[in-house]
Amino acid sequence: MSLFRSSLAALVLTLLTPLGLRAQELDPNFIPIPRSSGPIDGYIESSPEDHSLDQITAVADLRDVAPQDWAYEALKSLVERYGCIVGYPDRTFRGNRALSRWEFAAGLNACLNTLEKLAQENVAVLRSDLDTARRLAESFQAELQQLGARVDNLENRLAFLEDHQFSTTTKLTGQVVMAFNGIASGKRDNGAESIPQVPTLGYRSRLELNTSFTGQDDLFIRLTSGNLADLAIPAQTFQATLGYTQPEDSNLFLEVLSYYFPIAEDVRFWVSMAGGTFNDFATTNNFLDGDGATGAFTAFGTRSPLYFMGSGAGAALQGTGDTWQWSLGYLARDAANPETGNGLFNGAYGAIAQVGYNVTDRFGLALTYTHGYNTLDTNTGSQRSNFQFFTEEFFGEPVNTIHNAYGLEFTWRVWEHFIFGGWGGLTKAQTLNAIDQEDFSLGRGNLDIWNWALTFAFPDVFKEGNVAGFIIGMQPWVSASNIAFPDDLPATDQDTSLHLETFFQWQVTDNLSLTPGILVIPNADYNSANGTLVIGAVRATFEF
Fold first, then answer.
1. Angle between the N-to-C axes of helices 101-120 and 127-139, in degrees from 0 to 180, rounded to the nearest 10
2. What string of DSSP letters covers 138-193?
3. Which of 69, 188, 189, 488 suits 105 as a labelling partner, its CA being 20 to 30 A distant?
4. Distances in Å between the alpha carbon of 351 and those of 317, 387, 496?
């Protein structure tokens, strides 16, 4: 085999990306192995300081290079002589890919640098290899000069970014949701009154700071402001709760403060001082979960109600493996309150245990269990299913509750442009005290609360980044109860009510999306007398 072919084989494998080649002139998937004092992100390192074969990628480790290939001996010779070989992260060479003059020039420049450094360190280099490299350099002199100019330009730009960056450890991101909402039709109060059809315009803004001290940890801070009212109030049912509701009268406040760090291989510890939720550390298995800013625009369409059964301060463990995921967490709603009946362990709390299994890279499911005290209300579903709110609204005081909830969630990427998912959940709740007043009493008892949903997502429809979605389900409703209510008030929700939500998210730019959507709720609040509730919304999301 000629020395020219040997040199050419080495050049194809040398470091390309750091030399500033235009993206359209290179394979965008090519990720070179960096030369440094240690391995980076699991990539195999080829260092000119140590030329032993145990420090570089052996040709035999390249999965698509066989001993019978014409370049095998050339590649092997270069590895043994100079360690001048760099492949793809998946240990492939891809020798049948076309080579442009730009790539050839970049590879030549990198190999020249390697040979020059070896010569300076008095490492033996064959003169014939140097002569061949010198002749190639003369042939590509123009390209090498342009590459040098590009490298200088990149270094200048990098220096500018380093001088003007916000922080070496903190990344600042922002998100603004502007929404036009309105109830188009519906009745309330057992059908006695029509819901006012008053369009609203409001916003929710978030500033998020992610700080890492070790590269593997994250201190997360979220500052929030907004004035988007909760449509559940005029509709008199939590079925109308939107995912981006933020009724804070435009006051800026600290919404979330949390920190996580690894404590073992594939195990992370998470602690929240404020604003923690179950979905911070437990996967919701819903492609349409965009926390109200993207994807589904209702709270119920965003994720299973079980993930709303805990919030506040607390701690959690999260583990990941090849196919398994698991989470354990505890959150107290008033952890900072030292008064009786509050605090970290004496007040309202929620605990969660979840195990997830990815059957394939396209299908996954999770089993979820939550337990809580006075965290039954999810702000989704009927008024009865939010039983503490219900008793306070109708009887003037909330009862204490304890619950155990069980859920199953799944997601299935049927094909690239269609994702099918859903969940189902059962909550077994028990009241812990009775309400006794002069004209009525409410005894203790049990409630069964169900919910389910099927989600249909169509990503990249018409254009990359777009998402069309449809959700059908039943928000939480009380299916059975042995609690005796006064005045013949029903103990369960009487009628069937569906959740029908559809939207189209148009990705205008990388930083802006527009999402019109509509929500239809037949028999609002599980009461046929209330008729059909219809809500329309147009959401604009800015991310930076």
1. 140
2. HHTHHHHHHHHHHHHHHHHHHHHHHHH-S-SSEEEEEEEEEEEEEEEE-EETTTTE
3. 69
4. 12, 19, 30
CB 243 within 8 A of CB 297: yes
Is the per-residue pLDDT at 87 higher than 70?
Answer: no
- Please list the residues that pair with 246 across neighbouring strands: 228
Report which DSSP code applies to 33: P
Please report, to the nearest 10 degrees, the dihedral formed by the alpha carbons of residues 289, 294, 295, 301 taken in order: 60
What does the block give as tokens for 44?
A: 């195999």
Tokens (6 digits) for 404: 């155990």
49, burial (CB in 10 Å: exposed 0-12, middle 13-18, buried 19+)? exposed
Neighbouring CB atoms inside 10 A of 497's CB total 24
- Asked if residues 244 and 177 have their Cβ atoms less than 8 Å apart, the reply is yes
Tokens standing for 432? 């812990």
Could you report the per-residue pLDDT of 141-200, keeping only the tens digit for each?
776 677 777 777 888 887 877 766 667 788 999 999 999 999 999 999 989 999 999 999
Q: Determine the Cα–Cα distance for residues 11 and 129; give it in Å rounded to an integer.
A: 13
Q: Phi, psi (5° rounding) for residue 59?
A: -60, -35
pLDDT for position 198? 94
Q: Select the more confidently predicted residue: 320 or 64.
A: 320
Sequential DSSP letters for 369-432: EEEEES----SSS-TTTSHHHHHHHHHSSPPPEEEEEEEEEEEEEEETTEEEEEEEEEEEEEE-
Return all residues near 91 (Cβ < 8 A) that are at least 6 apart: 44, 57, 61, 62, 63
